């Protein structure tokens, strides 16, 4: 098996989308299809099920992925360690994180790097909710984990590390707090707190929609700049917040209920850095963070906090 076939197969098995695989490999879709067909001829059977609507692994494809992936990661890690030794990575990397779950990823990645890159020190800091990219652009961070989507022309973006479901943080006295689950349509019945700060419009539209799927308007509540401030307002009955599911675990508090959504798109997390600043230290952190994220179980769906 040639390396481009191996990489193509593993990326397509991860993405299950020819277009995204082509983008990550910087190849055309036709070339990706050609590599897959060539590998399937080499194996002697289909590895993917292709329809007009989806791409899925066959049972043989799943077996091949399970057999190949650990060896591929080991080879990539060995090459990266060798290259790091040759480059002499010996620096301090400043890494930002936006919430407790991503902070765990950063901490575990830092621990992993101590063994593979002892000369690389990592310093971490929380990213302000109201200014998600300001410190990165100023050079105060070398890279950071960010909630997706990220569509900033001056920032480079790595792979999605993980995704988790979303919950509605709502005051425990609100009628929605008694529900087992809510839908995006229910947002017409409660104002959403807004974020005050330098936050891109596309990010706000994704995380704080202005209308329900059927077009009903969603009222806006007071502004906030931190999650702690937001939860104080929620507990006071001033509005609600769409939050990642882990918020229910890390920010359980009286007066706030966390109700899972049935139809909200999950929150994804990825690494971003300043375009043109992809150093050896950044690449080492990205590689290690991907391994850490794979090993972490996804947070359980949100749950309601006990009522007062």
The gist of it:
It comes from Streptomyces canarius. With 308 residues, the chain is α/β, with parallel strands linked by helices.
Features:
DNA-binding, LysR family transcriptional regulator, 10 helices, transcription, 12 strands, LysR_subst-bd, three-stranded antiparallel sheet, alpha/beta, LysR_HTH_N, globular, 308 residues
Structure notes:
InterPro entries: LysR_HTH_N, LysR_subst-bd, WH-like_DNA-bd_sf, WH_DNA-bd_sf. This is LysR family transcriptional regulator. Belongs to the LysR transcriptional regulatory family. The protein has ten helices and twelve strands. It has 308 residues and is an alpha/beta fold. It has a five-stranded mixed beta sheet, with helices on one face. Strands 10-7-11 form a three-stranded antiparallel beta sheet. Strands 1-2 form a two-stranded antiparallel ribbon.
Record the SSE blueprint.
Blueprint: H1 3-15, H2 18-25, H3 29-43, E1 48-50, E2 55-57, H4 59-87, E3 92-97, H5 100-116, E4 121-126, H6 134-138, E5 143-147, E6 155-164, E7 166-171, E8 192-195, H7 201-207, E9 220-224, H8 227-235, E10 241-244, H9 247-250, E11 256-260, E12 267-274, H10 280-295
Parallel strand pairs: 3-4, 3-5, 8-9
Antiparallel strand pairs: 1-2, 5-12, 6-12, 7-10, 7-11
Helix pairs in contact: 1-2, 1-3, 1-4, 2-3, 4-10, 5-10
């Amino acid at each position: 098996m040639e390396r481009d076939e191996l990489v193509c197969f593993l990326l397509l098995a991860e993405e299950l989308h020819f277009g995204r695989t082509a983008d990550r490999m910087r190849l055309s879709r036709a070339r990706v299809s050609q590599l897959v067909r060539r590998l399937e001829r080499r194996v002697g059977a289909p590895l993917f099920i292709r329809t007009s609507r989806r791409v899925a692994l066959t049972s043989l494809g799943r077996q091949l992925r399970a057999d190949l992936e650990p060896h591929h990661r080991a080879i990539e890690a060995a090459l990266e360690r060798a290259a790091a030794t040759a480059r002499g990575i010996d620096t301090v990397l400043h890494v930002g994180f936006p919430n407790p779950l991503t902070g765990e990823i950063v901490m575990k990645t830092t621990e992993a790097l101590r063994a593979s890159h002892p000369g690389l020190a990592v310093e971490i800091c929380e990213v302000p909710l109201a200014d998600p990219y300001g410190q990165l652009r100023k050079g105060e961070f070398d890279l950071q984990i960010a909630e997706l989507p990220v569509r900033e022309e001056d920032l480079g973006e790595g792979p999605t590390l993980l995704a988790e479901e979303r919950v509605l943080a709502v005051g425990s006295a609100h009628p929605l707090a008694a529900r087992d689950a809510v839908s995006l349509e229910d947002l017409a019945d409660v104002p959403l707190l807004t974020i005050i700060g330098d936050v891109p419009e596309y990010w706000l539209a994704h995380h704080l929609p202005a209308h329900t799927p059927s077009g009903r308007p969603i009222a806006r509540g007071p502004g906030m700049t931190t999650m702690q401030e937001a939860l104080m307002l929620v507990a006071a009955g001033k509005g609600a917040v769409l939050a990642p599911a882990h918020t229910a675990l890390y920010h359980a508090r009286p007066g706030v209920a966390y109700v899972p959504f049935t139809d909200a798109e999950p929150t994804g997390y990825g690494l971003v850095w300043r375009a043109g600043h992809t150093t050896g230290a950044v690449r080492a952190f990205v590689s290690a963070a991907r391994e850490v994220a794979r090993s972490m179980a996804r947070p359980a769906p949100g749950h309601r906090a006990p009522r007062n």
